[in-house]
Protein 1
Amino acid sequence: MKKRNLLILFLLMLMVFSACNNNKKEDLEIDLPELLETMEEASKWEGMMNIGKKHLTNLYAIDEDEVTAFIGVMKTDGISADEIIIIEAKDAKSAEDLEKKLRTRLDAKATEAKDYLPEEYKVIEEAEILRKDKFLTLIVATNAEELADIFKEAVKFE
């Protein structure tokens, strides 16, 4: 009788712990190229170039090994402020550090444009930096709010 009660108690505890473990939050998976394509279509941009490893280091002061993945585009003319970068960080903590680097990039961009390109400076002032868990983005565009909504939907921003 005792063995039977112990077995039942053990099975009940096993079920309780299993149920608790099933509530574990799943890692969000996002197709970064698809997300960027959706954002580009909403912007109808022309004359954009891809942001590569060299840009990641030189413009954002981010080493490639700090991120799991990244993708982005920027204007090639050197005058227009338009720029989007989407980053998947290694984890939420590193995303916090990367957000600071995106802020530094945005501040530098604003400083460059403030006196020389007042129209572009207005666009930079309306830029968005968003972070959700390990995903973050810098959006500099005339329709930054619309693009931010696309990002928020993709990362299930609450």
Protein 2
Amino acid sequence: MKVTFEPDAEAELLHAVDYHNRIEPGLGDDLSGAVEEAIDLAVQFPEAWQIVEEGARRIRTKRFQYGVVYLFEGDSIHVIAVMHLRRKPGYWLDRLG
């Protein structure tokens, strides 16, 4: 299955990884791994996760308070946001087009 990222979602992930690595070396890398695991699960079971808005689904990461918001269409997953679950819910809604 093809996985693509909205540019803003990719920037969010890079920012979060950098921030966590500054808190503790390696912590951001752990976050990146947790996001990758979440995306892998979404690829395996794309329709298993909660629909949060207009067909967009969200899967939570393990260990970190982050979620991956994605659209599933045919044989592809498009990541809309890599969001902290306690900050600004819904800020990504305008990315749905």
Protein 3
Amino acid sequence: GWPSGDDAADAAAMNAWIETEIRRLPAQYLWVHRRFKTRPPGELPLYGRRR
């Protein structure tokens, strides 16, 4: 059942399901996560300014 009581196994199963769905319909995945919010001093930002 869900949850199984094993947090690591539950997280792995949930991530596997999410990955499967993204691979099935990649155009439907919303790519808004800014993974690299900060940059080393002197490096240009990776993202444009937020509105």
Protein 4
Amino acid sequence: MSLTDTISEKMSDIFKPQRKFISVLLTTVMLMHGNVSFRNMSRYSSLCEKTFSRQFGNPSDSAGFDMIGTEMSVTPHTLMIAATDCSFIPESGSHTYALGRFYNGARSEAGKGLEIPELAVADVNYNTAYSISAWQTPDPFGAGHTRTDRYVEHSVQDAPCLPPSVRYPAADGYYAENKFADGVTDAGYHLISKLRHDANLRCL
């Protein structure tokens, strides 16, 4: 039995057809070449394009799946913290969902593409991070919502999938603002970050 099957067996809300699909999906993504699309995945697997489309329409607890995989991978009683950051994906299409201008850390400037905020568990002893969940940043965000609101929602909603011993999320300077810090603090966590270059250190 593969690791994927072992994890799926521990999830009571995943039935046999979905277990089989997850196993095929993860194997195909690791082996295929080119863009990860329904049509391309059908060329490298035994499933047809319509099956991929139908299964992706079903809700699944991917964060719970990753949580179980992390628990099986880390050493018991190891020192762990949470980590969150965004990845930039260059994209020049004109009809791509959520296409916008996001910060590209490799070039230290904003660029046209997609953004994927990710929440992970970091094993401090082995300098290894295990992904828990990733949400795509929409563009536009909707009335009254900002990008920071999305980051807070992501971190708070998927925080229950973190190991119980993890109480400290680490993030870079972008997250060092009141809205994000207050959001994770209200959820019972203590943010570790560096101050932004425009931080106001005056205490009145």
